[in-house]
Amino acid sequence: MFETRALIPRSAFSLRDAPRAGDMWRSFQEIAVDASTESGWPPKRYRDENAAFIVRSMTVRHAQEPYYGESLTGTTWVSRMRRELFSTREVRIVSHERGAIASARQEWVHVSAAMVPTRAPKTLIDAFLPESPEGQSLEAVLPAITEPFVAGFPGGKAETSATLTFDFDAWWTWMDPLDHANHPAYVDWCDEALSRAIAAKGLDPVRLQPAAEEVTFRFGVRGGQRVSVRSHALGFDANGNLGVAHRIYALLPEGEVLAANATTFRRLCGETERTRLASLFGI
After folding, report:
1. Rounded to 10 degrees, what is the CA torsion of 148, 247, 20, 92?
2. 81 bridge partner residues
3. Is this structure's pTM higher than 0.90?
4. d(CA 190, CA 12)
5. What is the C-alpha to C-alpha distance for residues 266 and 213, in angstroms, rounded to an integer?
6. Are 60 and 143 in contact (CB under 8 A)?
7. Burial of residue 144, with CB atoms counted within 10 A of its CB: 0-12 exposed, 13-18 middle, 19 or more buried
8. Mean pLDDT of the 259-275 span
9. How far apart are CA 230 and CA 228, in angstroms?
10. Which of 16, 31, 207, 230 is deepest in the core (most CB within 10 A)?
């Protein structure tokens, strides 16, 4: 198990002095990379070996929002390794004063330089032997939908709520060392889709507050590609957070390609009437 100081940069914080969900994902990524480096596998070694680990899916659960400069500890360990291809990594961020901040479960796949799944060498497998540490709280799982929307209304008949669509061009300057959009960017896109709809309703998008999210990746978006985020409401969880399903497409000359499926749970900070957020979807 690897432990380090968790640093969330000032640029991650919004006007209400809370970090955005995508930037929490970036903090989780840094902790995982630091742990790999400590185990003898820094990014340069992967590049020298013509291989990499890429994120297959990631689930995050937020307990509370950290404030800038708060003393935070990041803890991570590999909980499972399968067929020398797939690795499950758990990551936790904890405040020294206030307890659990957020947790993540990352599913990684080992790939060649050509981005083809390939078995990891024994030296790498030996460096990441699975662990099961005791006393780790806040498991990274999505909450359940306790009040589902059918027909856009509880108890209705149609299949889905209204769909929000947000289209944009991927910036070249967003590309990561593997030359595709880094996985936290997909969370940014989902939250930007909601934020624009919130602003169009005359509400303040800075109040959008994360509770949980999960993204499963299928295709790496590259610079210059047209991207479409299509979102519809699923329902409320037991804490009144709105669950939203997002499909993210790359709009290529040969047709649409599904890049990722995502589910986010969000609320409006300070909002007592939860249906204000649901109204984005005609509910």
Report:
1. 80
2. 87
3. yes
4. 16
5. 9
6. no
7. exposed
8. 90
9. 6
10. 31
